[in-house]
Amino acid sequence: MTINLRAPEPRELKPRITVLGVGGAGGNAVNNMIRSNLVGCDFIVTNTDAQAMKQSTTKAMSAAGTVKSVSATSLTVTSGGKDMTFTIDSSTKFIGKGLGTKAKAGKLTAPDAVAANDSVSVAYHDMSGMLHAASVRVTAKGTMTGK
Question: What is the largest CA-CA distance in the chain?
Fold first, then answer.
């Protein structure tokens, strides 16, 4: 019996670095890094101010806010006093307490995962003006007002 040992490929030893900019100062810092042509890392910016998010030069962004409406194909979140509408498709992941057990019962749809007044954090990509939700994290379940 022969045992073949070899050193791993050099590409396997490279670390994955992600720079996360939080708020206005974090967004500015990340934008400066991108403008300086910093390579070898991924950039993510998060902010509750929708207007500030549009100025970001990162590929992946996130926004936190309250769900205003949800359908099978879209999610509208109020973030920083502005409404942001995200497209939802089969690649969108939903994360939150109890959602894993719902997924085992069948395909998890957006209305199954989130509801109006839920607090969420959405990681998204700007795809030629359309905001595509890559993942939706439910941070707190909302309560319905009125009857």
Answer: 74
Lowest mean pLDDT among 3-12, 48-57, 66-75: 3-12
Topology of the domain comprising 15-140: OB fold (Dihydrolipoamide Acetyltransferase, E2P) (2.40.50)
Q: Which of 120, 137, 108 is nearest to 84 (CA)?
A: 120
Place of tokens 């890559």: 134
Pairing of strands 74-79, 93-95: unpaired
C-alpha span between 39 and 25 (Å, rounded):
20
Angle subtended at Cα 50 by Cα 89 and Cα 63, rounded to the nearest 5 degrees: 50
Q: Which of 123, 43, 128 shows the shortest CA–CA distance to 75?
A: 123
Query: Looking at per-residue confidence, does 74 or 38 come out higher?
Result: 74
For residue 31, what is the enclosing H or E element? helix 23-35
Q: What is the pTM of this model?
A: 0.58
Could you state, in order of their start, the residue ranges of all structural domains in the chain? Answer: 15-140
Radius of gyration over every alpha carbon of the chain, rounded to an integer in angstroms: 19
Q: For residues 133 and 122, is the Cβ–Cβ distance under 8 A?
A: yes
Q: Which two tokens stand for residue 95?
A: 């994360």
